[in-house]
Amino acid sequence: MELNKEQIAERFKNLQQYICDYLEGVDGKATFNSDVWVREAGGGGRTNTMTDGNVIEKGGVAFSAVFGPVSEQMKTSLLVDGTEFFATGVSIVIHPSNPHVPIIHMNVRYFEYDNGKRYWFGGGIDLTPHYVVPEQAKSFHLSLKEICDKYNSEFYPKFKNWADDYFFQPHRNETRGIGGIFYDHIDETSGLSKEQLLNFAVDLGEAFPKIYETQVNLGKDKPASARELDWRNTRRGRYVEFNLLHDRGTKFGLHSNGRTESILMSLPKDASWEYMKPIEAGSEEEKTLSLLTKGIDWINQ
Amino acid sequence: MELNKEQIAERFKNLQQYICDYLEGVDGKATFNSDVWVREAGGGGRTNTMTDGNVIEKGGVAFSAVFGPVSEQMKTSLLVDGTEFFATGVSIVIHPSNPHVPIIHMNVRYFEYDNGKRYWFGGGIDLTPHYVVPEQAKSFHLSLKEICDKYNSEFYPKFKNWADDYFFQPHRNETRGIGGIFYDHIDETSGLSKEQLLNFAVDLGEAFPKIYETQVNLGKDKPASARELDWRNTRRGRYVEFNLLHDRGTKFGLHSNGRTESILMSLPKDASWEYMKPIEAGSEEEKTLSLLTKGIDWINQ
């Protein structure tokens, strides 16, 4: 029998638990608080959040499985022609306190309408370093490529470019960070079965905390100066701009009467804005800005 | 001869200067830095900003006068059917450091297309207290009503409701602050001539720093606790949400290749987000949240 939506939601729910347990180990101090909520129009979720850890200043790992009638807006934005939708996924954003540890985001999602008449998967992992370090970006991209290559050798190059295009801020002419992979509306026309696509999503999800652990360990013991903390908050300000101005998930959630606190758990504890912030020539901040650009081949730099 | 666009831009430019001089007096310490810029597609502006004053932590008073071809997006969003537009205005956002002094916003703008074939004015002043104090809200609204009543007794009630509707955050079910007045697309069908509409805009603009001075003096000497500073940053977070998610001026500016730093001068130095921030029963924070609602008659409470 073909995989059904309840089974997919169950795998994602377990994935959330797996990731939270692992991240608690990575942090070594804080634990997740769990918040179970019900959506009036159908379904609900569990939002797990962590604050003031050794490493993680503010982090959220959210699971949801929601369903209901397809709205006019969904027809336009998701190109759905059905009447009932079902959507489930896991979404993560982690804001570390140390500016030498990057912000990370992961999402895996499954969408179907009219009880499976059509379905697709989407997802990805991307990294937003406060300071871009090319060797760390290379290690990150290599890990993603390794998972992709197990499923389809075309995935990594395709999804890497997709991430470059998606995590881009036209109003700043900057990428959000060093990208990663992003995919959406992927179904069996990819050559993979529904079960394989789910396995790909879960593999990505299970690799996520290990990948982040590597990034954490590369930066967490570096001391942070006042200037670096200030830059961290400026970079967080850009992250807020992306999420509120451009991110489709945030827009879709807020416009479809989603749970605001769960959607906006992606925002950092503190962010700053300075008008025309001066950037010193030859500084690490200038170097980072120069690397916030599309199309960098991080693996073969 | 009828008032032309150059004359209107000149009045607005002088208004910017007047307001900046007055605000420097209100602050008593910091002065404005002036940044003149040119828009590639036509026109330019002068963005004046102030930081780290006695009262004003981050404030901007921007003048611009821009022109160019009418884009497809402008046709949709501004319902323009012409080919060339001209837009000039003064925009202000002030973020004070003391949580007992409110955030304030003012904008006056003039738009025309095809060399005056059609024109309109828009504008308004609204107040976003970190802590809502009904008596201070009353004084603020009374000042606005007084100016409106000099031109048309229907303006204040109409523009007050318009502000309630405009400065509303559906995803929070909250108003941004205590409103004020907001108007848009007002032309001679209002019963006022072009010259009277310009005088109304300039009257509002000249009253602005006096009105803010009153608000500043009511709060600036109150001590601020750590808790109140934390709440200030949370309220600033909501302000960021409004400006990036809902504000039409911000959207229009960013999507029409406006000058990003001038558009986003409205964002505060520091803002915070806390997941499901607990609000103590009976606290001042709870009282403020209960007053962030449409339709309060602040004058006759």
List keywords for this structure.
9 helices, two-stranded antiparallel sheet, alpha+beta, 301 residues, 7-stranded antiparallel beta sheet, 42% helix, homodimer, globular, oxygen-dependent coproporphyrinogen oxidase
Description:
Two copies of one chain form a homodimer. Chain A is an alpha+beta fold and 301 residues long. The first copy, chain A, contains nine helices and ten strands. Chain A has one domain: 3-Layer(aba) Sandwich (oxygen-dependent coproporphyrinogen oxidase). Chain A is 42% helix and 26% strand. The first copy, chain A, starts with a helix and ends in an 11-residue tail after the last helix. The interface between A and B is medium-sized, with 31 and 30 residues.
Return residue spans of chain A where pLDDT drops below 50 for at least 5 consecutive residues: none
Main beta sheet of chain A: strand number and arrangement?
7 strands, antiparallel
Quaternary structure type: homodimer
Fraction of residues in β-strands of chain A: 25-35%
End-to-end Cα distance of chain A, whole Å, is 46 Å
Shape of chain A: globular
Write the CATH architecture name of chain A: 3-Layer(aba) Sandwich
Number of domains of chain A: 1
The third-level CATH topology of chain A is: oxygen-dependent coproporphyrinogen oxidase
**What would the average pLDDT of chain A be, to the nearest integer?**
95
Q: How are the strands of the biggest sheet of chain A laid out side by side?
A: 1-2-3-4-5-6-9
**Computed CA radius of gyration of chain A, to the nearest angstrom:** 19 Å
What is the assigned CATH homologous superfamily of chain A? Coproporphyrinogen III oxidase, aerobic
* SSE order of chain A: HEEEHEEEHHEEEHHHHEH
Give the largest chain-chain interface (CB within 8 Å): A-B, 31 and 30 residues
Count the DSSP helices of chain A: 9
How many beta-strand runs of chain A? 10
